Every structure is written in structure tokens, then in C-alpha cells.
# Entry
Amino acid sequence: MNLTDFFNPARWSLSRKFISIVLLILLIPLASVGLLKEIENTLVNNLRENLLLSSRLIGNQLVANQTWFEDSLLPDSKEFLGKELFVFPLNQSFELDGYFEDGLDYEVHRQTFSKNQSSFAVLLGSFERHLIVSIQVNDQAIIYPKVENGFVSDQIEIEFKTQTGGYQRILLAPQAAGQFPVKINNNSSSKIDWRYKANWVATSTGFNVELQFPSGFKPKEIRVVHQDVDKQGLTKFQQIVSSSSYDLNPLVWPSQGLVNYFD
# Structure
């Protein structure tokens, strides 16, 4: 067989054609594996280069905007005995309904405070320049206040200090579940402040409370207190559980610069 016949499939024998087809079939997956490995190497290298570029860009932004870290630091004091409370950024679908479903991503960070058999758990978020305080209370029996009867009832008290050092005390004691007015206590008197919004929801284990601060209010420290009573007609609280036994809890706010950058 001359060279021309060797490369002319029309002149091949049946056995040679069969062997050629088998070899071709075997070479196809081998070639495919090699091609896939080349594609994989290319994709990995591109991903590595993109990650390196992104890390450099983020690093440059963090170096150039060091105030982002200062915005989220703890208050400048070493005398705090309370436990820090962290404020988490909430999404745009937030509703003040008492269930805090819009903050489910942060539920693992809810902080619990207890004393004897009583306890409550706090989770704080920021939404459109509002501070949102979510409180889940374990309570055997909810006692709502009665008008002018002189007896104590279940209530939540929130103390806080502003960035300028001012002190305020909020009283949450609705006469029924649902939305209710928020009272500000000043010395021995109290008055409704309609800038605050609150919702109280009864649950199978007690009740939930959500409180929305006025726009722009950014407390530096805060303390949450549950004053508990499980029977009608009492003049003293049966149990008092606080988020801090001594000082107010320092708040750790999210850096708005970091939130905006990573959004």
C-alpha cells in the first residue's frame, strides 16, 4: 500500500475502518477532559484575579474611610459594667407589628436577660434613621393596667442617654394588645410622646413589644427593664429583670459608611 492509499479511508480495509472508529470514540472523552480542565483553570484564574482586585479595592476604601470604624465603636469609657447591645441594619420591608419578622436574619444575635424564673430577650435594629427595639418577654400571666386603680401591672421601662448626655425614661404599659401610645417619664410625671411608635403582641409564652424611636434619635446607652406582676390587685412588682444591673448598656451602632458600601 502506497502513502496515498494509507491516508485514503476509501481504500482502507473494513478492520482498519473499525479500529479507526473505535480510536476516534476513545479520543473524544480524552479531548473533552483536557478541554474542561483548560476551561476550569481559566475560570479559577479569573476568579482569583477578581477576588484579589476586589480585596484591594475594599482595602483601599477602608484605609481611605477610617471614620467608618469610629462610627461603630463603643462609647469612650472603661467604666461600663453593663453588657453591650448591638444595633443591626434592617431591610426596606420593615413593619412595626410586634413580630420582628423583618429581622429574622439577626435572630441568632438576640440577647437574653434573666432573673430567677423571669426573662426577656432583646434585639435592636436601625431602619431609615429609626432605632427599633424588639423585646420578647416570658411571662406566666399578662396583667394590663386599669385606669386609676392604683395597682401595678406588667410594663417595660426603657432608659437611655442621648449622644449629648441627656437622660430619658420611656414607659411601655398598654391597656390592651396592639398599637399604643408611648409615655415619657420626667421625675414623677409622665406624658405621651407621639413621636414614638409601639406595638404589643400577646404570645403563647408571654408577649412581644416593638418600639420605634423618632427619626434621628441615636442613643449612646440604653437599659431595658421588665417589671413583672402575675396577679391583679398588687401594689408592688413581683419581679424586676434588667438588661444591666448597674449602668446602662452601651450601644454598638452599625457604621453607615460600611453598610452603604457593601450594599
Remarks:
- The mean pLDDT is 79.
- The two ends are 73 Å apart (CA to CA).
- The longest helix spans residues 14-64.
- Residues 201 and 234 are 23 Å apart (CA to CA).
